[in-house]
Amino acid sequence: MLLSRNVGEGIRSTTPSLPEHVEVTVALPENEHLYRENIRKTGGSFAAVGITRFRCGLVSEKELRQDKNMAGIKFWLWYMHHPPHEVWKKVGRPYWSVEAYASWKRAYFALPEANRVGRDARPSLASIPRRAAGPDWLVHEHVVPQKVLLDLLITKAQPVAKVLDLNMGAVITRREDRLLPTISSHPDAGDPWRRYAGTGITFIPNPAWSRSQRTALERHDLIAAEAER
User: Fold this and answer.
1) Are residues 51 and 127 both part of a single domain?
2) Same structural domain, 193 and 154
3) Global confidence as pTM
4) Model confidence at 163, in pLDDT bands (50, 70, 90)?
């Protein structure tokens, strides 16, 4: 079973590794040396490439913020989390709420046994509650809203690596998603889980969490007690 009671291996983060250097095939501005130097300083990640192209005048801010535009960075803020597949968008996340896990488990065991697992031995797409499940629909939620991350990168010129550290995804239900404040702001992006404080949403402990990841959740009493799991 890929998803266990304590979530464990099945919900471990699967963030794909990024290449050390990224080749960009675009027309370079006159200050090519500055462009190349910025790429080296920002580490060559996809998001760094996008923000560097913007600072050098190669793309507009509108393009940079477009969801499906590979020339920008919102695209990479989305896909840095997981391969482009609905199962990995959920199963590959290290943070699952108690309610989300219960919703998934109900859907999984409601399926005929032959349909529960895909050919890759992972939970099938059919086992992931989707929009038709109504309030039990599983949502991949950005702990720090993407708009906030984009503002930090574009208008506040925060270091790319620092912002990417805040780019965390949690799996919750649509019902829980409605308990959260607006997706356009955050009370303190430096304390990512503060937005969840007081909502009643709790997360199943994951042995893959680092000490600092666990502490960040404990600060707002977001880790489920044994009786809740």
Assistant:
1) no
2) yes
3) 0.75
4) confident
